[in-house]
Predict the structure.
Amino acid sequence: EPEVTQTPSHQVTQMGQEVILRCVPISNHLYFYWYRQILGQKVEFLVSFYNNEISEKSEIFDDQFSVERPDGSNFTLKIRSTKLEDSAMYFCASRPWGTNTEAFFGQGTRLTVV
Amino acid sequence: KNQVEQSPQSLIILEGKNCTLQCNYTVSPFSNLRWYKQDTGRGPVSLTIMTFSENTKSNGRYTATLDADTKQSSLHITASQLSDSASYICVVSGNAGNNRKLIWGLGTSLAVNP
């Protein structure tokens, strides 16, 4: 069964460093998303991506964040200068064309900023 | 403000028993409502997706109901198993064009004990 894969599963980084979280969405999907979940809190929407551009982003997704789909398969989230409060699980999701199609989530990357 | 509220916050039941989880939402306009199961430290997995016109949908031992008039949904788990122990999250999608932002509940933490 096709699945969304994320790497790494766990990343520890020093405050101020740049991190890149990687995702390989399901191959025939068209919509891509990044979410984060701080421990014990709700899943929060960060950004959606369609047709090679950002279609929507939340207030959390400020200038420190960027996304790319560099080669038609990978979908990356970059945090330029990490802060302690960026520590969270980051989930990538993708879904196929359609109004009410199911979104498939990856297993997440646990980012720890120290 | 678009919100999704779930109850109870946590629940403990014995293996083999049934339970019902509740979700109230204020998202408008409404596109669909999803129930996800999230194991600790893992990505959410979709259980059901319901649109405005659907009142009930089943997926094995999981049955979701939707009352779009009162903006309420429930997830009923029949004959619970130890593997049902997880967080169950209600997610509502608003009608915001081609790319829809999901509004997440905090989830109900279910523990099934032997």
Observations:
- Chain A has a mean pLDDT of 93.
- The radius of gyration of chain A is 13 Å.
- DSSP finds no helices and eleven strands in chain A.
- Chain A touches chain B at residues 4, 31, 41-45, 48, 50, 55-56, 58, 89, 91, 93, 99-100, 102-108, 110 (CB under 8 Å).
